[in-house]
Amino acid sequence: MSNEIQNINAQGITTAASAGDSARQPAGDSSFGEILKKSLDEVNDLQKEGQKAMGDIATGQVKDLHQAAIAIDKAEMSMKMMLEVRNKAINAYKEILRTQI
């Protein structure tokens, strides 16, 4: 098993760190909070686009059904991913709480 964590590219977030260098900042010198806020804003924007597409379909104002379906799927997938990230963070927090010192 390698001591390096490979580049991770999810939702446009790219970080690289080695096991011996825990102080290294993600690309762009952004903090974790800033990256999380940016990701939440992107999910929110996709949700708004998906809701607009659903409204257009319901009222018959949709010009391209295929693009509307894609917008709805993007919104759904981004929400599922954000929920999984949240679940993993909660599980990690619970694991830390169970750790005895």
Characterise this structure.
The protein has 101 residues and is α+β, with helices and mostly antiparallel strands. It contains two helices and two strands, in the order ββαα. The protein has helices spanning 32-59, 65-98; strands at residues 4-10, 13-18. Strands 1-2 form a two-stranded antiparallel sheet. The longest helix is centred in the C-terminal third of the chain and has 34 residues, at 65-98. The radius of gyration is 19 Å and the shape is elongated.
Summarize the structure.
With 101 residues, the chain is an alpha+beta fold. It folds into two domains: 1-30, no CATH class; 36-101.
Keywords:
two-stranded antiparallel ribbon; alpha+beta; 101 residues; disordered N terminus; 13% strand; single chain; 2 strands
The poorly predicted ranges are 1-23
User: Given the structure, what is the number of helices?
Assistant: 2
Task: Please identify the structural class as seen in this structure.
Answer: alpha+beta
- How many separate structural domains? 2
Please tell me what the overall shape is: elongated
Estimate the strand proportion.
5-15%
Main beta-sheet annotation: 2 strands, antiparallel
User: How are strands sequenced across the largest beta sheet?
Assistant: 1-2
N-to-C order of helices and strands: EEHH
How many whole angstroms does the radius of gyration measure? 19 Å
Quantity of strands, as a count: 2
Tell me the span between the first and last alpha carbons.
27 Å
Mean pLDDT: 79
Report the helical percentage.
55-70%
